[in-house]
């Protein structure tokens, strides 16, 4: 895993993309990373290190791409996905990204996870290489003026904080709020949105904000401190490993605040089970996608397709692992864009299609949420719905709790 994984994929027959080629003295010339039979895509993932739970996203994407490969082709082209371990370390992300560009000659960087996306975006933009649908701090990635070759895919962390704060104001206006957050752009964006949602009541309601470092062994001391301060409402802005620690420690202490969990750590198998399902009941999170483990979607065609794919191509994973679903889901926009490119798979055309999405209802999005981008708006998903864990699965809260459009 540390040296990387190479996979070939071919999108389904329904998503057929033509061949890009021009003839020069009898030979075909292709853009970088494109041949008559291949589209080469690069990616970095935290397959090791403190955020290794998110590496499941990359494994799920490669399993989906294997299925698409088996189904026969983008006009004979296979996608060669080269996915390398960066251990959630920005310097390693820089090293591995340079390898993907300079040694492997990829057409695009797709779906990389973490703050390393910020570390490499100047390098990629200077070389006019699409940094496509990457998973990092969404507000920072929405900067087409300065970084026109970089686009994310997630709802903003700001929005996550915003809608939870508004829920608290509506349901618990006298809350004593404590926040645990990762001391970096990932955590701070959530906190900014949360404070914006509380408005002028933030100073009164927030009792304590406690950071942690990604290198810390545990967050136990922070949880003890929040309990001792009389916090009754807890916003858990932590990566999977630390989110699980926080939930488990609260249970051990017999501390039962109303808990809100960032959507980036809502995996049942990777977070809530290690934390203890009994400790996780009642936690509120948010989502933009259908959860196949939620019984309301059991007859939905998307759920059936996902479960069939998982049974055949990812049988070792749990259906309750949201990171498997994330890998499956976040691949859909890439395939859509490749389809829209038609016969032109140049980097310019790929980026054009990614930044001209209009009400695109890719499989898996909740009703009413679509992908929308423009040359001045690089934030594809602008809605979230709140969801509560019932001990077995996440259940959507009432429709009136639907998240607002991402504020600028």
Your description of this structure?
- The chain is an alpha/beta fold and 408 residues long.
- The protein folds into 2 domains: 5-155 and 297-377, Rossmann fold, CATH 3.40.50; 157-287 and 386-401, Rossmann fold (3-Layer(aba) Sandwich).
- It contains 14 helices and 15 strands.
- It has helices at 55-70, 90-103, 116-126, 138-141, 157-171, 185-198, 202-205, 220-228, 240-253, 268-275, 277-280, 301-313, 322-340, 347-354; strands at 5-9, 22-24, 27-29, 38-45, 78-85, 108-110, 131-134, 150-152, 177-182, 206-212, 233-237, 258-261, 284-287, 385-389, 394-396.
- Strands 1-5-4-6-7-8 form a 6-stranded mixed β-sheet, with helices on both faces. Strands 10-9-11-12 form a 4-stranded parallel β-sheet, sandwiched between helices.
- Strand 2 and strand 3 (27-29) form a beta hairpin.
- Helix 1 packs across helix 13 and helix 5 (157-171) packs parallel to helix 6.
- The radius of gyration is 21 Å and the shape is globular.
- It starts with a strand and ends in a 12-residue tail after the last strand.
- Residues 1-26 and 399-408 have low confidence and may be disordered.
Please name the fourth-level CATH homologous superfamily of the largest domain.
Response regulator
CATH class of the largest domain: Alpha Beta
CATH topology of the largest domain: Rossmann fold
Number of strands: 15
In round numbers, the mean pLDDT is 89
Q: What are the secondary-structure elements, in order, as H or E?
A: EEEEHEHEHEHEHEHHEHEHEHHEHHHEE
How many helices? The count is 14
Largest sheet: 6 strands, mixed
Oligomeric state of the chains present here? single chain
Distance between the termini: 38 Å
Contiguous runs where pLDDT drops below 50 for at least 5 residues: 1-26, 399-408
> What structural category arises from helix and sheet content?
alpha/beta
Strand content: 15-25%
Shape category: globular
Number of structural units classed as domains: 2
The CATH architecture designation of the largest domain is: 3-Layer(aba) Sandwich
Q: Order the strands across the largest sheet as they lie in space.
A: 1-5-4-6-7-8
- Helix coverage percent: 25-40%
Query: Mind telling me the C-alpha Rg?
Result: 21 Å
